[in-house]
Amino acid sequence: MMPLGRSSAQQNQLRFAELRRTVGDRKALWIAPLWAMTKRYLVIIRNLTDVSDLPVAYSAYTCHGLESSSPAELVSFDRRLSEAEIDGRIAAGQICEIWRLDSRIVHFRWLSTVRVSLPFLGLDFEPLAGDLLLFEVFTLADKRVRGIHTNVARHSLRRASDGGFQRMVALCAWWNAPALRVAEKNGFKIAGAVTRWQLGPVATFSTSRSVQVQGKTLSVLESRDD
Ligand SMILES: CC(C)(COP(=O)(O)OP(=O)(O)OC[C@H]1O[C@@H](n2cnc3c(N)ncnc32)[C@H](O)[C@@H]1OP(=O)(O)O)[C@@H](O)C(=O)NCCC(=O)NCCS
């Protein structure tokens, strides 16, 4: 069993394993060192005022809150998270959706209407009123590329729309082809990008289009054209 607070070396190993799984060994070898210096995330937005164009999602998956599980079960599912981090997220008012297929967890996602720390960027994300931030998505490794994220996202977008939200906002690493593919299929549009440049001990940020960084706060301006 991994300790509660994981060292940054352990975190980096787990992240590198995910990168290899997502892009393959060859690409991972050049993306990893580049990523250590330059992290570029696309900020994507789905307008929720009209979700009628979304294809109907099939309903083999059932959605549960964290009460259906335990932090320990989630950690065993995705070892990049620690129990302490999960407790901290819940205390901060962040929402965990756990998706099961035949009672087994196959996917989870974290959403928030409140400020969220993004340690991989060293920034906090501040959702605007009416925005629901999707800040983490994970499908069990041996269940990937079977349409789970695609379908769960459709359920999730409809729930958010029914809940009165106007936009779902998410961040996606430029190299994450599966996540970008699902976003594209589900009508997300690119609102802009944020790049973290690491120059020795100093980090600076650049942004484009509707994305802005002020101090340590990342936000996406209101632009109904997105
Ligand atoms: C991103 C992630 C959630 C996708 O989950 P999933 O359940 O496998 O997604 P789906 O099966 O619904 O869809 C994956 C799509 O990407 C496509 N895809 C997979 N690998 C791809 C690649 N290397 N290049 C291009 N497209 C790719 C699949 O073909 C599929 O599209 P299709 O249905 O049109 O064929 C999953 O890969 C994951 O958990 N990754 C680790 C965590 C992560 O990266 N989270 C996202 C952070 S933004």
Given this structure, which CATH class is correct?
Answer: Alpha Beta
> What is the average per-residue confidence, as pLDDT, rounded to a whole number?
90
The outline comes out as: globular
Question: Quaternary status of these chains?
Answer: single chain
Structural Rg: 17 Å
Strand content: 25-35%
The ligands found in this model are: coenzyme A
**Strand tally:** 12
Report the order of strands and helices. HHEEHHEEEEEHEHEEEE
Cross-sheet strand order for the largest sheet: 2-3-4-7-8-1-9-10
* CATH fold-level topology: Aminopeptidase
What key attributes describe this structure?
alpha+beta; single chain; binds coenzyme A; 8-stranded mixed β-sheet; Aminopeptidase; 6 helices; 4-stranded mixed β-sheet; 226 residues
What does this structure look like?
- By secondary structure, the chain is an alpha+beta fold.
- The protein has helices spanning 8-23, 25-37, 71-77, 83-91, 148-162, 177-185, and strands at residues 38-47, 61-64, 95-101, 104-112, 116-118, 123-125, 131-139, 167-173, 189-199, 202-207, 211-214, 217-220.
- It has an 8-stranded mixed beta sheet. A 4-stranded mixed beta sheet has the order 5-6-12-11, with no helix packed on it.
- Helix 1 (8-23) packs across helix 2.
- It binds coenzyme A.
- Coenzyme A binds at residues 18, 22, 137-139, 144-150, 172, 176-179, 181-182.
Quick structural gist:
This protein is α+β, with helices and mostly antiparallel strands and 226 residues long.
How do the strands and helices of this protein lay out in sequence?
Blueprint: H1 8-23, H2 25-37, E1 38-47, E2 61-64, H3 71-77, H4 83-91, E3 95-101, E4 104-112, E5 116-118, E6 123-125, E7 131-139, H5 148-162, E8 167-173, H6 177-185, E9 189-199, E10 202-207, E11 211-214, E12 217-220
Parallel strand pairs: 6-12, 7-8
Antiparallel strand pairs: 1-8, 1-9, 2-3, 3-4, 4-7, 5-6, 9-10, 11-12
This protein binds coenzyme A.
